[in-house]
Structures are given as structure tokens and as C-alpha cells.
Amino acid sequence: MRKTYAEHRQDLLARYPQGLTPGGVAIDDIIQLKLQNTYSTHLDIARDMAVVMRADMAAYDADSSQFTQSLGCWSGFHAQQMIKSVKRLRGTTKGAYVYLSGWMVAGLRNRFGHLPDQSMHEKTSVVDLIEEIYVSLRQADEVAINDLFKTLSAARKAGDQVAEQAAIKAIDGFETHVVPIIADIDAGFGNENATYLLAKEMIKAGACCLQIENQVSDAKQCGHQDGKVTVPREDFIEKLRACRLAFEELGVDEGVIVARTDSLGAGLTQKIPVSQEPGDLASDYIKWLKTEAITPENPIQPGELALYRDGEFQKPVRMPNGLFAFQDGTGRARVIEDCIASLTQGGADLLWIETDTPNVDEIAAMVAEVRQAVPNAKLTYNNSPSFNWTLNLRKQVRDQWIAEGKIHADSYPEGAALMSADLDDTDLGRETDERLARFQVDIAARAGVFHNLITLPTFHLTAKSMDELSRGYFGEGRMRAYVNTVQREEIRRGVSAVKHQHEVGSDLGDSFKEMVAGERALKAGGHANTMNQFAAE
């Protein structure tokens, strides 16, 4: 339990009745540093944030409008600015998480260059990014609490007791910028032991929630690309257990595991599991394999395999690379079975169904089937930038209105023409935008989605923002482009990063210098500091 300002002061006065240490350090300075250090270790963060997630999950179970959200961040600074923005908007960080995307680690945060999402990057990069994000969020705490103590000091110097008590109340009521991270461990980067070892390092870096997928580790593909290969359910369950053991060993008893299934778009499997009895996990997996009849015209050849199915031997369809094919159109059924097995036998807490389009009805229908076996099944859902949201939802609206007789088939164009900007200010365009605005609310209410995330927003935002600024700055606008698109908006929105020296801890450093040097402190924040030009926080 975090001590209050008064409790810290009482403890320190018992040791130093004069209000100073033998070395001349003021006890208020000690209190400030203790309160700025909101977490001693990142493992403490994992333990606390797991409790936060569990409480949020319980709140969602009671009321589906209490879903949570996150944005994928590829640096600590992105995560810090996102959470500060949420805090300015809502006055709290509650319900806001950070998503750590393996795709963005591969594409932006590894030593081998910009790589596709195929587990080719160093797995230590994932751990490093978790660590970096929490360092940035904790520094946001330090900067904010330092500002509160400056307010307290000013109130005391002015002899304003009302302002002094208000400052102390603000210090005691401070809400940390530290929030849960849902961290992508891909397919585990190896076997179950490799998964366990990496999971431990991710948890020690602060991750309270691990998301793992049922693809083959050494053939992993992005969930929105072709060529995905799944593993038998027993193999995946072993990796779920590896993650659970890592949580338990490190004392993160409430650690959360998200089991992701890519079966909807995966048509291949690496191997055929061994079935011990009808209806076991292996037999339920094998039954979906594509097979060919063994006939005189299609005899079994040396080196080929045979399965005994429906009272006869059949040949499983095997690709030139040795992988086995599933029957066409079975992805949905395999997803349902994957989800149930992950929850009931793998001990997963949340599901992730990777879909090919954002369709609430389709996702809700799959979740309804899962909930027949596991009534409280909940999802994390990827509101992916891989979807063409405008095209998909405009098509859904158009098709629905045609089916309802509201419009004729020729009222709006088909296909890619639905992207036209000319449709923005039409009934179709407006209805689509309304559905986009309520998509997460709908999917939380109807499809059991506890957590809505966007995997790659900061990748796309950075690309777009740099294009926007570059086109203006290197074009005719020059400084006008920078001021109008960046600085003026920062000031008017109250984005604290406009005071970039303050944002990275310059005032924090000044405060520490004063703690140890008093009047001798050489400070950066004097009258000549140009940051004084910015009144906006």
C-alpha cells in the first residue's frame, strides 16, 4: 500500500527530528524521491498490473460497456504520450493499456533492419521494449510528481496553507501513468522450454499479460498474411502451460494469458498428432485434415502416409514441403475448437480470434458457440490496420440496405469504388462512420470482447505524420508547415511535450540539484530558458 505524504513525513521525523539528515538533506526531498519512485522493480509492476487486469475483467463481466482499450506502441515515448493523452482526456488512465506488437518489434525495433512479422527478429528485443515502455511511463510519474512538489514548495514559501493542503492532497491522490501491457510473445520463439524462458524475461520486464498464438514457431506468419501453419492443440496447450509456470514461479499469481488462434486463415498444419482415443484433442484436430481416397488409380506410394478414417484408409494431402492441408472451409469450426481447448485445458484467460474482416455478426456468432462450452469466455480483438475499414463497413452497410429493400443495387457503386471520397457526405458514408464510432461498443456487447486494441497505429501514424510535415516543410510552407501542423496544435491541445526540455526531465534534474546543492545548484530552468515561452502544459 502506497504511503501518504503525512505517513512518510511522520516516519522520517521519527528518525530525523530536526527535519534534516546528518548530511543536511531535507526530509521533504526524501519524501519526494520516495513518491516519485512509484515502483521499485518491474516485476512489482507485473504483479500490480495483473491485479488491475483481473479487476477490469470482473467489471466487464458485470457490464460489457466496461471494456478496455489499447494502442500498439513501438517505443516508450509513444506509450508515454498515449497514456498522458488519455489522462488529460479522461482524468484517469483506467481502462487504458499498452499493446506491444511483435509485428512492430520485427518491423522497427531489431538490429537486422525492417523485417516482416515472421519471428526473425531477436527475441530479446521484445523484452527490451517492455522495459523501455515502463521506464518511460515511470519517468512520466517522476516529472508529474516533481511538478506537484514544486507547487507545494511555492505554497509554503507564500505562507498559503490552503494551497499547501491542496498540493498535499494532489500528491496523495496522484494516479500513476503505469498501466498494463499486453505483450506479444509470437508463437513462443521455439519449443515449450524456449517459450517459458522468454516468458520469464518478459514478465521480469513488467509484462502482466502474454499473448501467444497457435502457429508453428519456425514458420510463423503475420496473422493477416497467407501461409500460416498451426500446431496440434496439445502442442499449443503445452506453451500455454509454459507461460503459466513462468507467471507462477515469479509470483505473478494473477498473470493473464491470451490464447490466439490463427486457424480461421490457416490451411496447413505441421504434423499429425497421435490420437489415444476417439474424441481426444488429437482426433478432433485430425478429423479436419484433407484426405484422398486410396484407389487403384491413386494408390499409396512408398513413403506416403495413410489415415484410418470412416472405416477405410485414406491419404492425407501432403504438400511438397511436407506440411499437411486442412479441408477447405473448416477454419471456423477449428477456431471454435481451438478456443474451447485453450480455455478448458490450457488455462488461458482470454481469447484472440484473428479474423479476415471486421464483422461484428460473424465474430459474435463464433463467440456464441464458444460460450456454449465456456459461458464467461472473453476476447481481446485486433481492430487491425490490415483491414480496409472504410471499404469493409461501406460494403456491409450497402449489402444490408439492399437486403432490407432500403436501396437498389445501383444506388451505390460496388467494390473499390466504395472508397470514393464523393461518398463521404452521403447516407452510406455517414452510416459507415457512425458504425465505426460504435464498433468497439458493439463488439464488446455482442461478441464478448473485453479488450479492443489496434496493433500498428503508431507505425502508420508516424509514417503519415512525417509525410504531412515533410510535404509542407520541404515544399512552400517551410516553417509555417511545422508551426501549423505541430507546435500550434501542441500548445492549443495542452500537449505537455511542447515543452520538450521539461518532458524529458530537465526540471526534474534541477530539483535534484537543489536537493543536494541548495543555492549553489546550477539549474537549467532559469529566466533564460526558452521553454518559458510556452505557457501551455
TrEMBL record:
Domain of life: Bacteria
GO molecular function per UniProt: isocitrate lyase activity
Pfam families on file: ICL (PF00463)
Catalytic activities: D-threo-isocitrate = glyoxylate + succinate
InterPro entries: ICL/PEPM, Isocitrate_lyase, Pyrv/PenolPyrv_kinase-like_dom, Pyrv_kinase-like_dom_sf
Swiss-Prot/TrEMBL keywords: Lyase
Record's signal peptide: none
The keyword Ligase belongs to this UniProt entry's keyword annotation: no
Transmembrane feature ranges: none
PANTHER family, sorted: BIFUNCTIONAL GLYOXYLATE CYCLE PROTEIN, ISOCITRATE LYASE/MALATE SYNTHASE
The protein, known as: Isocitrate lyase
Organism: Caulobacter hibisci
